[in-house]
Amino acid sequence: MLVAAAACPCPPLLVPEVAAGAASELDAARAACTDALGVLAAARPDLLVVVGPDDGAGAREYPAGTPGSFRGFGVDLDVRLGEGDGVTGGELPYGLAVGAWLLGRTGWADAPVEGRGVGESLAPDTCLAEGRRLAGRADRVALLVMGDASACRTLKAPGYLDERAAPYDAEIARALGSADIAALRALDPGTARELRVSGRAPWQVLAGAAEGGADLSGALLHEDAPYGVGYVVATWS
According to the lineage, what is the superkingdom (predicted)? Predict the structure, then answer.
């Protein structure tokens, strides 16, 4: 059963070594993510699953110990998803690598860790079913859900300016901050793709995980759009 969840943004710039001279610009987001992980630890989970965007079309498992790297961003920095062998022959996608970095930064040792990558094109019903499956993996399951809101908030944003982006992100922040499962279930993949939203599929996995679990309350810890990309930090507990 899902007993707690945290939603965090997953830009590699969250890692100070990647952001370099601009690292201080995301200090508030990092602090909120640290607080969110504290909520997960306080729930005393038997299992923590990190869910984030993946390049594939489906859902992919990343066992404990799977390595990740930020070398693709010009930084000699490696991470590992919890403790384990990570015998997959693969490497964490960037969203899960940021999640692994957050866990390592806070010294997570409160429960075993696994990863799930979900593709951008994964249908909502499939995301919901994946969430229900994850919630059944242990008596007390916590999710760390990585994903960004729209990358179309300003003229200089990666996806340029789209007037729909700000109200879309405001609704995402409201839904995550109030644990509104119905609103997350209703997210449209096409609109998310047009607005360059990486968190749609992970958030719908969260919605599926919460369907049959405890009655969780949400809290919005942080909302901002530096670099024209929406970042939201929220907890469910």
Answer: Bacteria
